[in-house]
Each structure stands twice: as structure tokens, then as C-alpha cells.
Amino acid sequence: MVSRYYPFSRFLRKRFGAPVYKIPLDAGFSCPNRDGTIGRGGCAFCYNPSFGPFADRALPIDKQIAVWASRLRRRHRNAVKFLAYLQNYTNTYGPPAQLERIYDAALAHPDVIGLAIGTRPDCVPDPVLDLIESYAATRHVWLEYGLQSIHNRTLVRINRGHTAEQFMDAVCRTRGRGIFVCAHVILGLPGETPADAVATARALTELRLDGVKIHHLQVLRGTPLAAAYQNGGLEVLAPAEYVRWVCDFLEHLGPRITIHRLVGDVLDGDLLVAPRWRLTKSEMLRRIERELERRGTVQGSALTDRPPD
Ligand code: SF4
């Protein structure tokens, strides 16, 4: 069945002629919103190990890749090509010479076809973009910017430490360098409505992003959001609500933007305070597909001002 949205897996398969599996890596970076450079508390939702619970920062990059490549090959007979995903913390937060050593190590494995680099939009000075552009000349390279919402009032509320304008500036400076650009967003952030989420989708469409990774808001133990939730100051989305939010979002998102994720990974377990949906990720994906089918809509179908091809 062809999906009613544009999954990243389809994009990769078309481009490389085979499935490409992402290998999650932890290169030992820090984050300026935690080390005091921008802030100390971090983002209100952030329990960073939950973003890459499968990476082992104690191992050097080449060992992490070797461990994951053989694990994925045992699990999937078609796992031949890999994308090295620098996921945890801010993976452009360092001098270019240090970044170069890390990126080189990630690309050294013969079956790694490229890089996906997770970072903040305020951590990509031009010399860092110049370095990443040099890899994009010969390899497949994504920059994944944490944005979460296009609304500055929300960014303040969740203590992101950057603005929507800084995100737009980073995207504009990344454009034209052969680097694919993805944004991470969270649906159901404090104070936001479905209309706010739609406005975020429309802004990403106008910016002509290449990819979007969508998470539902999860309240994780030990985070500022957990305290707010336990005090009754925060509500989370029920599964049916999330399905509606994400379908609204997709309908207002440009049809050429690849969808890297539609729902967060941490759906249960000790770390999770709320929401406790007790549903598998595949069940949530099925419900989203079914809702789009019920509505008779697809990704981008609510846009009348689609970007030109
Ligand atoms: S920028 Fe990323 S690593 Fe830093 S506090 Fe926010 S979510 Fe966590």
C-alpha cells in the first residue's frame, strides 16, 4: 500500500536502490543549553539519553558503527547500506577540526553512505557549514535542526534558548550547499493548539525543507515538564487527539518534504511519565494512515499555495 505521506524510507530506497538503515551514534558532545553557554537547565522536555538510548558513548565511533551494522544485519537481511546518525546532544558544537575527526570516523565504514547530523539552529556558524558542505560534495548529508515549534512564545516556554528567526537563518545559510535539511518538531507542546501546529507545518513548507521528524510530546522523568505535569499544570494528548493533530499537520506540509518520523519512540517504560498510551508505534502509524484515508486527504492536500516543483 502506498502511504498517504512521503516516508523517508521511500526517499532513501529510491535514491540508493536499496533500504538504508540509520545507525544511532553518540559522539560525546555536550549542548550549549545545558553547559551554561546559552542556558543550564536544558529544554523543558529534554532527557537526552532518551533521544539515543541505543548509542554507547563509551565506545569510539567506528566501534559503535561496527556493533550496529552487525546488529542490523542480523535483524534485517536487506541491511546493506547505512546512514551514520549523530543523534545525541548538539553534534556541531565544537571546533571544525574536532568535528572533522568525528565525521571522518563516522564515514570510514565502507557501507556508510552518508551522515545525518542532529544539532541546534544556533550552533552552525559558517565555518561549520563550510565543513559539512565539503562532505556533501561526495556523500549524502543531512542536517537535522531541532526546532520543535515555529512560535517564539512556545520556544520561550520550553526553554529552547533560540528563536524561530535563528532557525530560519540557519536554514537559509544551509541552502545551496548540497546539504539536505530536516527539522524536528513536537506536537502537543504546552500552550499550543492544532492551529499552532498547522502554522509550524506551513512555515516549514514555505522554507522548502527536505524533511521533518515529528514527535508527540512525551513527559519524561526528571525533566521540568514532569514537574509541571505532576502539579497539574500540563496536559498531554490522548492517542486519538494525536492522530488528529498529526493528520492536520501533514495536510499542511508540502508533499515533497520527507517524513522521518511520525510519532516518538519512547512509548512506555520507567522513563515515561505521560502519556501512557499502551499502544505500539506500528499501531499508531496504522491509526494515522486510517485517519488520512477516512478524511480522503494526503500530505499537502490542504495547501493551495504549494511551492513550485
Ligand atoms: S538542545 Fe537538545 S540536547 Fe540541548 S537541552 Fe535541548 S533537547 Fe536537550
Q: What structural keywords apply?
A:
alpha/beta; seven-stranded parallel beta sheet; two-stranded antiparallel sheet; binds iron/sulfur cluster
CATH class: Alpha Beta
Shape: globular
Indicate the CATH topology: TIM Barrel
Number of domains: 1
Oligomer: single chain
How many whole angstroms does the radius of gyration measure? 19 Å
Largest sheet: 7 strands, parallel
The number of helical runs is: 10
Report strand %: 15-25%
Low-confidence stretches: none
Helical content band = 25-40%
Give the SSE order as H and E letters: HEHEHEHEHHEHEEHHEEH
- The CATH architecture comes to Alpha-Beta Barrel
Termini Cα gap = 25 Å
Number of strands: 9
Mean pLDDT: 94
Please describe what this structure looks like.
With 309 residues, the chain is an alpha/beta fold. The chain has a single domain, classed as Aldolase class I (TIM Barrel). It has helices at 8-16, 61-75, 96-107, 126-136, 152-157, 164-174, 194-206, 224-230, 239-251, 281-295, and strands at residues 20-25, 81-86, 112-119, 140-148, 180-187, 211-216, 219-220, 258-261, 272-274. Strands 1-2-3-4-5-6-8 form a seven-stranded parallel β-sheet, sandwiched between helices. It has a two-stranded antiparallel ribbon with strand order 7-9. α7 runs parallel beside α9. It is globular and about 45 Å long. The model has no long low-confidence stretch (mean pLDDT 94). The structure holds iron/sulfur cluster. Iron/sulfur cluster is lined by residues 31, 33-34, 42-43, 46, 48, 89-90, 120, 146. Iron/sulfur cluster (SF4) binds at residues 31, 33-34, 42-43, 46, 48, 89-90, 120, 146.
